[in-house]
Amino acid sequence: GASIQIVLTTLLGGLFGQWNGWTLSSSLLFGLAISVASTVVLLRTLEDSKLLFTSHGRLAVGWLIMEDLIMVVTLVLLPPIALMFGYDQVVLEPASFLHKHVFLLLCLTLFKITTFVLAMVVFGRRLIPLFLTRIEKHASNELFRLAVLTIALATAFIAANLFDVSFALGAFFAGMMLSESTLSHRAAEEILPLRDAFSVLFFVSMGMLLHPYTLIAHPMTLLWITLLIMVGKSFFAFVIVLAFRYPFKAACLIALSLAQI
What we know:
Layout: H1 2-19, H2 24-34, H3 39-48, H4 55-84, H5 95-98, H6 102-138, H7 141-162, H8 167-179, H9 184-209, H10 213-217, H11 219-243, H12 248-257
Helix pairs in contact: 1-2, 1-11, 3-4, 4-6, 4-12, 6-7, 6-8, 7-8, 11-12
């Protein structure tokens, strides 16, 4: 369902971009940008509404996690895809050879992603829970908290520097491996304050990217974009959920959950 919704919203955003006279690549990239919703926003909203652990809430979270996974892989593949559209200013290494063989670059990128995922599943799934258990038996609360942070940041750093995978994907898999441990609930409690702090910093940084003059210079364009997000994308999700024979209430919750980016 998430995959179908991303494709349909991307095409809708692409049509909007073509209507505004944008290039095809810019239009599709715009459609891709509005096709995914913010997991952070949804989680906080579901928590406040006491819906997080309901069956419909789990469905909504699963939908957004799928979107996150698809988008992370897309971001990794975006530079070689940009070369296909003729954006020669994209810097990739080794540039002299791979610029001429974009297909090989795509294959190399996919190979790195697959290698990282397999390494995390085979080794991380066993070593990370074992490491946490040893720390918990022989160390203080402070060291346990530090171990959780070290695992998360180290995994993300290794993913970015050794496998050329995004920092976000590395952190995501670190969380998945931490959840395999019997101490996952304690680990979640230890880093909960940090999660809230980083969420605040994230939204502050997003606000700093917006120039207020944009709202004055392009009011109608922004209005149409808002309608695309809140109505168009949500409508696709609503129809898809109903097509999978889920209840009307579940379709409404998913549609409302996706009415943001």
